[in-house]
């Protein structure tokens, strides 16, 4: 529960200021971390932070993938998408 609240606060800042406004954020590390099997709740929090309603699929995927770098592991990419 606490991690979820912290992640929501962090994501609010991340989406407001972008990756340049969040020092120390690495898109590759974020993608690797969110792709881990134990981070399902955190990944759900991350995904629900996007305004996907009424968006075409292509635009929604571009928006999602612009905030992280997809990892090289196909299992992690599968979890993220």
Task: Please provide a written account of the structure.
This protein has helices spanning 2-17, 27-34, 40-48, 57-66, 74-80. It has 81 residues and is mostly helical. Helix 1 packs parallel to helix 3. It is globular. The protein starts with a helix and ends with a helix. The mean pLDDT is 77.
Number of helical stretches of at least 4 residues = 5
Helix percentage: 55-70%
| Beta strand % | under 5%
How many strands in all?
0
| Cα Rg | 12 Å
Q: What overall geometry do the principal axes of the alpha carbons give?
A: globular
Report the mean per-residue pLDDT as an integer: 77
State the major sheet: none
SSE order, one letter for each helix or strand: HHHHH
Number of domains: 1
Strand-pairing-aware structural class = mainly alpha
Note the gap between the termini. Answer: 23 Å
Low-confidence stretches: none
Provide keyphrases for this structure.
mainly alpha; globular; 81 residues; single chain; 0% strand
Q: What does the secondary structure layout of this molecule look like, with pairings?
A:
Blueprint: H1 2-17, H2 27-34, H3 40-48, H4 57-66, H5 74-80
Helix pairs in contact: 1-3
Short account of what is shown:
With 81 residues, this protein is mainly α.
């Amino acid at each position: 529960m606490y991690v979820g609240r912290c992640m929501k606060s962090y994501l609010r800042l991340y989406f407001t200021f972008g990756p340049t406004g969040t020092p120390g954020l690495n898109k590759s590390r974020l993608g690797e971390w969110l792709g881990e099997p134990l981070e399902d709740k955190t990944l759900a929090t991350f995904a629900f932070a996007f305004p996907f309603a009424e968006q075409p699929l292509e635009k929604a995927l571009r928006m999602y993938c612009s905030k992280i770098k997809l990892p090289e592991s196909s299992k992690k990419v599968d979890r993220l998408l």
